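User: I'm new to structure prediction. If I give you an amino acid sequence, what do you actually give back? Let's try with this one:
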Amino acid sequence: MMTLILMVIVIATIAYFVLVNKKENQTPSLPNRNEIRYPTIDESQLNDDLSSAVGIDYRNLRKCLAVKDFESANKETKSLFEKISSIDLDLMDPDPQNRKIPRIPCTDICTIDRLWVKYSEGRFGFSVQFMIWSDIYLRLYNEKKEFNRREKIESSEDELEFSANFDAMYKFYNIIGWNDSVNRIYQESAPEGHLPSLFWHHPFHYRTMVGVFHRLMSCRK
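Assistant: Good question. You get back a string of structure tokens that encode the predicted 3D arrangement of the chain. For your 221 residues, that looks like this:
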């Protein structure tokens, strides 16, 4: 009888450990993105300036940012930016002469930037990108200017600016994580300045992007 009881205990113990081991080795399936439910927000509790000079509704952008749905926020930003700028960002050269950028309403470009900065806690936004870019550009510009002075190389101001701008492009892309022209990271863990991501990894788009930076800064003066 005692032997039978011991056998039952041993079998039950083995079965328990097999079951536990099986559960530990199971890989939980990730939910489909369409099945993810973001938390709801009481928009009446959000205190934001959603001003627009051209009648744009920024509530959907704010909602996406408030629940940290950065992918949807990025798509919404692209759509809103094209409306306020009349620039088609899907073109290889979206604004060949940069003639449309000075006509972007200050009210709207500032509203978009303000929302991104606020709801990313200062990690994302055009102004964040500008600060990163300007630091790179100015350092390169000063280095090149000092080199030319030391080596007695004559160069015009336009040549200096062009050279510094060109080198700054690749350094900027690497620092904010745009060295991959396709994949973007829509998480808070993305590099600082990674979002919004509206511009391609291409010199033509880079030129437009820098123009947008300068437009925003002129609007904030």
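You can read the tokens as a compact description of the fold. Here is one thing that stands out. The chain is about 55% helix and 0% strand.
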